[in-house]
Amino acid sequence: MTAHEAYRLLQKGEISSVELTRAVLDRIDTVDARLKAFLTLIPEQALERARAADALWAEHRRAGTSAPGLLGIPMAIKDEICTQGVLTTAGSKILYNFVPPYNAEVMERLHAAGAVLIGKTNNDEFAMGSSTENSAFFPTCNPWDLTRVPGGSSGGSAAALAADETIFALGTDTGGSVRQPAALCGVVGLRPSYGRVSRYGVIAFASSLDQVGPITKDVQDAALILGTLAGHDPKEATSVDLPVPDYVAALGPVTLQGLRVGVPKEYFIEGMQKGVEDAVRAAIRVLESLGAITQEVSLPHTDYSLPAYYLLAPAEASANLARYDGVKYGLRAKEGPTDEMWAVMRETRGEGFGAEVKRRIMLGTYALSAGYYDAYYLKAQKVRTLIKRDFDQAFKQVDVIVAPTTPSVAFKIGEKVDDPLQMYLADVFTLAQSLAGIPAISIPCGLVDGLPVGVQIMGQAFDEARVLQVAHAYEQATDWHTRRPPL
Ligand code: GLN
């Protein structure tokens, strides 16, 4: 059931929030031992909130007033996002005991809309990864094939949603972590424009790239959740003060007459899985059948997005992660006298961070160090500008750009863990949009050997409405989004 369907049934009084919440909790009981999508569950608090939501619904029905858009609807939240009073680990041992004293702004907005938190989902440690195998706790499995990864770093959210353990979920996307797991789990994942959604209370990985995005069962839900999350937050300096359109109303009619769709030649590369390319090309033909005019476009600096991202993101991460020192919160590996705090910090960071996080801190520290700064960090920033200009140029000719989300379907658990470069390549198609700050959505467009494929639709900065409209039109003309894993 989607959030908009649940809302309709709640409105009519045909179901209650308690029933809905029990249903997802029962489902979690049945499947999560195999899937391992959740790090923390809060069933009692969830049911309490659901009972309160039912009381509010009763009032609204009696008074004939309209209830907040997510009243009584269960949600699962990535463990990168701070939830007041609920353990938030970022998938890291260094935060194994961190209970935030405040909510992220996105949580405040979801609570105001009436949504019911059921638990926190697994992710790669500090959102660094593409498979959820970098979680300090355990890997999550893909519900379509339990021997495969769900993608990452928001793998827990995507797997939980695909397995019907929640009605909707949130992820964070720094270089693809909402879109890539959504593609590999056969659900919808939207990365908003940089600045569209507040990062306040979102555990920082790379601050110039991080964005929160909805992971949902269909495009209408993506529009609904984005509308709830989006908008200026005075607490967050990079959140943008622009009006928030009614994204659901903007979904509009199911025609794409005259829409100009760009197909970037650099995104159909040697080495990508044949079945994935076929599914994406078929999706492009569906857009044409709805009236869209496709044309080839070029994003010439695409090849540089991976090296630029893997300098900039680790550079920012190395600074952001300096705060985990065993002093202020989280793990403290040992005690020591004040004049030997350096030893406490060294031991805490040595024990608390996993291998991938340490690799990023070293890469980033190196790229930022005097003597290398110009050659690496500054150079990467310049390349970032060129990548952004590629998109600016392309959007002079077309309204949206369509490409694959990932080069392959879900890979096997363990397949890439010993080869960081192979793991980084899983995000080869989702890095450039992050660097350019533009919105992009991944929606299901096929199955290859029973495993989902995602097609990615990108738009100009702050043109989420258009991206959603195109995705919605495609979805209305196809039924890939209704397929469910055989779990
Ligand atoms: N896989 C990419 C990385 O490891 C992207 C992760 C993300 O978007 N959080 O950095």
Description of the molecule:
There is one protein chain. The chain has 487 residues and is of the alpha/beta class. The protein folds into three domains: 3-260 and 407-482, Amidase signature (AS) domain (Amidase signature (AS) enzymes, Alpha-Beta Complex), CATH 3.90.1300; 261-302 and 384-394, no CATH class; 305-382, no CATH class. Helix content is 39%, strand content 13%. The protein is built from 15 helices and eleven strands. Strands 1-3-2-4-6-5-10-11-9-7-8 form an eleven-stranded mixed sheet, sandwiched between helices. Helix 8 (274-289) links the parallel strand 7 and strand 8. Helix 5 (155-162) packs parallel to helix 6 (179-185), helix 9 packs across helix 11 and helix 9 (305-320) packs across helix 12. It is globular and about 65 Å long. The structure holds glutamine. Residues 127-130, 153, 173-177, 205, 313, 427 line the site of glutamine (GLN).
Low-confidence stretches: none
Q: What pattern of helices and strands is seen along the backbone? A: HHEHEHEHEHEEHEHEHHHHEHHEEH
Biggest sheet, in brief?
11 strands, mixed
Q: What is the CATH architecture descriptor of the largest domain? A: Alpha-Beta Complex
| Distinct bound molecules | glutamine
- Tell me the β content: 5-15%
| Structure class | alpha/beta
Q: What is the average of the pLDDT values? A: 97
The end-to-end distance, rounded to whole angstroms, is: 16 Å
Q: Order of strands in the sheet with the most strands?
A: 1-3-2-4-6-5-10-11-9-7-8
CATH class of the largest domain: Alpha Beta
CATH superfamily of the largest domain: Amidase signature (AS) domain
Number of helices: 15
Helical fraction? 25-40%
CATH topology of the largest domain: Amidase signature (AS) enzymes
Rg on CA atoms, Å: 21 Å
From the spread of the alpha carbons, the general shape counts as: globular
**Number of DSSP strand runs:** 11
Number of domains: 3
